[in-house]
Specification:
Blueprint lengths: L13 H17 L3 E6 L1 H14 L2 E6 L8 E7 L11 E7 L9 H10 L7 E6 L4 E6 H10 L2 E2 L2 E2 L1 E5 L11 E8 L4 H9 L3 H9 L3 E3 L2 E2 L12 E4 L3 E11 L5 E8 L2
Antiparallel strand pairs: 1-3, 2-3, 4-6, 4-9, 5-6, 7-8, 10-15, 11-12, 11-13, 13-14, 14-15
Helix pairs in contact: 1-2, 5-6
Length: about 260
């Protein structure tokens, strides 16, 4: 592996880079596909870049029959033709008294992780405005079905569903073109949500911000393409592309903002 590859990414991404290279080496040694856990959009971008740079092999991503944010990666030799089954996904439906209870994305995720399940084994959590489903790795689906009977104080039952019955998410995203003075986290948040940078900094330092689903309290961290920024009580947005700089050296971005 070329050690210089690390300089193109953040220090905290080194472990993930090693994981991708480990997968490539296994494909190289055994000439069989290697399946990765669920990846964030930025991890998907990094994995794609590494596999393309390595050459000889391919990578594909899949998280369900509809467009998904979190997807598993499959590294495979040229001869191989991946199918949906290769990605090891199970779709779980949550049954609960819809008219008398309130369930949210955060409550579902919290319950799943309270069972000792790592975040990277859970895909998208989907709602059509009334029903809820979650995509998980097949190996943990039976455990979750038998372990979870409540979310918050609401009685629930998890049931495995055919992949073709996956709900279409009712989330609405709005694409915006913005110009920012820097790629600092506080600068991006203040621009997207149209409030002061000091307020953005306060939100970060108070523990209200996640970058790629990881809590951060540093206003000065640099964000980049495919990063997802979650802002408690405001929603989330992700950086689709960096489109160059203006004459005043500001950064021109395309972002997608979740409508609330």
């Amino acid at each position: 592996m070329n050690e210089q590859v690390y300089q193109h990414y953040r220090p905290e991404e080194a472990e993930f880079i090693d994981l991708v290279y480990d997968g490539l080496h296994r494909v190289d040694n055994h000439y069989v596909p290697v399946l990765l856990h669920f990846l964030t959009p930025r991890e998907q971008m990094i994995a794609q870049q590494i596999v393309e740079e390595y050459g000889d092999f391919k990578i594909a991503f899949y998280g369900g029959i509809h467009a998904t944010e979190r997807r598993r990666g499959l590294i495979y030799p040229d001869y191989y033709q991946p199918t949906d089954v290769d990605y090891g996904l199970t779709l779980l439906q949550l049954h609960y008294p819809v008219k008398f209870a309130d369930i949210s994305h955060g409550k579902i995720l919290g319950t799943l992780m309270s069972q000792g399940v790592d975040r990277n084994r859970i895909g998208d959590i989907i709602s059509d405005g009334e029903q809820w489903q979650v995509v998980v790795e097949h190996e943990i689906s039976t455990y979750l079905i038998h372990s979870i009977d409540k979310i918050s104080n609401v009685g629930v039952r998890l049931e495995e569903m055919p992949a073709e019955l996956m709900l279409i998410s009712q989330e609405e995203w709005e694409t915006e073109s913005i110009v920012v003075s820097s790629m600092r986290l506080d600068t991006l948040i203040s621009n997207v949500y149209n409030f002061s940078r000091q307020r953005a900094k306060d939100l970060i330092q108070q523990g209200n911000i996640k970058v790629n689903f990881t809590l951060t309290e540093r206003p000065d961290i640099e964000v980049s393409e495919q990063d997802i920024i979650s802002v408690r009580k405001f929603g989330r947005f992700w950086i689709e592309s960096i489109n160059g700089r203006t004459k005043k050296d500001n950064v021109h971005l395309t972002v997608n903002v979740l409508k609330r």
